[in-house]
Design goal:
By secondary structure, the chain is α+β, with helices and mostly antiparallel strands. The protein has helices at 55-71, 138-153, 159-167; strands spanning 27-36, 39-47, 80-87, 92-101, 105-114, 122-123, 172-173. It has one domain. The protein is built from three helices and seven strands. Strand 5 (105-114) and strand 6 (122-123) form a beta hairpin. Helix 2 runs antiparallel to helix 3 (159-167). The chain is globular, with a radius of gyration of 18 Å.
Length: 174
């Protein structure tokens, strides 16, 4: 049980939510895992139920990720983790590559594809020091993965446990 923290001031800021914003649910769907080099990643698509990730975009993302690991643009070595392909709008996609390192740390690489003018996925620039990490929909997959990785860490961590981690995925509305 956690204690409730009292506000440190009498004014609670409004935060950064546009008054016109209307939140909608999205669907998380697992896909086949992806072997890249000597690493293995689970796969998740996130999109509105009525506007799923198109097969050609998913194929492009998986190919771009494989090529990036082969070329060294994304450095993975004996990693376990997951990739999230998030349809953020009609034609904007984030490709989030997350791996577990140093026993209990989640490391991330962010790529994106913005519309038909961009032929493939590319690294996403972060000019600010305080920046976004995961959105509310992506956190559904991340939460499941945190729980699955914790179960793995408490296991014997043998081949059967690793296979169990890879099979442990999430499907559902967020």
């Amino acid at each position: 049980m956690s204690a409730k923290a009292e506000p440190t001031s009498t004014v609670i800021p409004e935060g950064h939510v546009d008054p016109g914003y209307r939140h909608v649910s999205k669907l998380i769907q697992p896909g086949p895992e992806l072997a890249v080099g000597d690493s293995l990643l689970k796969w998740y698509d996130i999109a509105p139920a009525d506007a799923r990730v198109p097969d050609d975009i998913r194929d492009l993302a998986r190919a771009a990720l494989s090529e990036a690991v082969t070329s060294g643009a994304i450095e993975l070595s004996r990693d376990l983790g997951f990739a999230i392909l998030h349809r953020c709008g009609e034609s904007f996609y984030f490709l989030l590559v997350s791996t577990w390192r140093n026993e209990n740390e989640l490391w991330e690489t962010v790529w994106a594809k913005n519309g038909d003018d961009e032929p493939s996925f590319r690294p996403w620039p972060f000019p600010e020091t305080h920046r976004g990490t995961f959105c509310v929909w992506e956190l559904g997959a991340v939460w499941h993965e945190q729980q699955a990785w914790s179960r793995y860490l408490r296991s014997e961590r043998d081949e059967a446990a690793r296979a169990g981690y890879i099979r442990d995925s999430f499907t559902g509305e967020v």
